[in-house]
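Dear colleague,

As promised, here are the two records you asked about, laid out in our usual form so they can be pasted straight into your sheet.

NAME FIELD: protein one
SEQUENCE, THEN STRUCTURE:
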Amino acid sequence: MKHILFFAICLLFAGSVSAQTYYGPRRVHRRPDQRQNTDDFYRPRVGVEGGLSIANTVSTYNSNYGTSGILGFHAGITAEIPLIYPLSFEPEVLFSQKGYQANTVDGTLTQRNNYIDIQLLAKFRLVRGFNFLVGPQINIPLTGTTTFDNGFNVASETSYNDNSNKSYVAGVVGFSIDLNQNVDIHARYVIDLSSNSYDNNSPIPDYRNQVWQFGLGIKFQ
């Protein structure tokens, strides 16, 4: 997991250097109204995006509860609708994998869930080439696969949308770096705002998904 995080940080650092090169110092005939900084802002765009997800769970009320992360992916369509400089509206519809891994005395339990996530993000251009993202996400559960490995046998069971996946709203915060006018890289943190635990007597307390997303977006004007 440390190697994955290190790779993601290196990717973002490389993107930052590339963006500085793209948007770096160059000779520009400045206009008195300084509108050259917003020339590329007021252009609605649509595109696609996808990348790596590192998913886990968290409990708000039990600090002793913890699980290990699993790797997945997210992919889908995105749009950018300029509102008023420096604010844009960025809706996205993504297929997203979430879940966790738990080590028990009897073996290893892996839970992998598939969702359709609708992100409704506010995008703030802090400086040209660097953006801050924040907003809500609507979670639509699709299927879930539970796998148990006791060291000798592996058992797997797939279930469809039921009460075990009832957290439908999450919060998103992150940033993106524009490599050029059409390509960006981004990092986001997503966490459920309500619990998935449907049984008050469940040994899994206040089960909430949390996901780190590292991705690449391509938008067309």
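NAME FIELD: protein two
SEQUENCE, THEN STRUCTURE:
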Amino acid sequence: MTRRLNGSCLCGEVRYTVADEFQYALICHCSQCRRATGSAFKPFGGIERAKLEVTGGPIRIFGDVMTHDAHCKACGSLLYSIVEEGTRAHVTYGTLIDSPSLAPQAHIYVGSKASWDTLCDGLPQHQELP
């Protein structure tokens, strides 16, 4: 049986579960992820969309059904992004309550990272998406 991870937004209004079966885990430094999170980067795990289930709370969608960011309607926390024509979810690791089995594997879009951000964890760094 697959282990399920719990996650929630900052205020706790939105809750979700996701299978602990992430196929990749990356740390994105692109300008869009920096703006969406208010941080230097967005760590996330990629998984099939069907393996993510919102179990409670109001979601606000930015985008369309096939490609969007999902935020808590109350506090604004970025919970996940739907990508690849609606087939995959990029779950933000910062909203997970439980620890995923797969740790981040690489940094992506470091070519556009914030100038004040220094990467010193030893993970591979890619200028764009490998």
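A couple of things worth noting about protein two: The longest helix spans residues 31-37. The CA atoms of residues 11 and 75 lie 6 Å apart.

Best,
R.
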